[in-house]
């Protein structure tokens, strides 16, 4: 087995390395990279919650024909994500086996995390950006000339301040909070993260008891960011990361909210539960030394009625749902709920 990375430093609090390649792809190309159909490739793993944000946004906006997508396998070693799902283990567009090759093309000897999502310029094979938070905002605001007819406005200007505020709290205490608990190197740091996580989940439970979506009456960027953590909560974070005060399905409003989004085109049809579990339980060997992947939990509940329609709201606002998943991008049978 290839050498695995280390995720827990004994005696310390987990701190996420947020030194990303912050170059932006914009309408005017002010960072040297202009929006251009067919030029870029989005590299993701369906296992990764940060990458899954980009997968959902790309699908909701209908950018499949202008921004291709490469899917790395769910497990990786200490060096890099790999394209072991593709024939010969090589990405068919970039012609590389390891995502690190695209990073090294941009920055020789790149010494920070080889992370997904990453957008790669197919002209020279170099990573443009791996700044996952800015990436989806730019897809929503800089690529508007290329979105599908009926695409929703996921970052409406009048609501941006509130979306940013809610998303910041959710990132600190929930999206990253589960990692601060799971990768804690001491009992004290684990307990701090655990309490902050469930305090915020209680806050979200109350907020979502009276409104269908996090901000406004339509799906926004804030919902995408919360969803990718919630969908991993019971399969991974509850047990593997010791976030076990409650399971998601024991928090009524959050569980119904998560099912509502899961059953909305563009969300659940991008989720690969097999990849999610394989990644966390196989890669994090300092937490799960045996690499055994649990068979549970039962996923059929994701398809049960959620009743959130009674709260009103219009999922896509004045827009429409996305069409069928693009050929070749379907989640395999047996990897989905139900």
TrEMBL record:
Residues 304-338 are annotated as: Disordered. Keywords: Transferase. Pfam families: GST_C_2, GST_N_2. Residues 156-283 form the GST C-terminal domain. The keyword Metal-binding does not apply. SUPFAM superfamilies: GST C-terminal domain-like (SSF47616), Thioredoxin-like (SSF52833). The active site is at 48 (nucleophile), 179 (proton donor/acceptor). Glutathione binds at residue 81. The record marks 237, 280 as: Lowers pKa of active site Cys. GO terms for cellular component: cytoplasm. GO terms for molecular function: glutathione transferase activity. This is Putative glutathione S-transferase. It comes from Motilibacter rhizosphaerae.
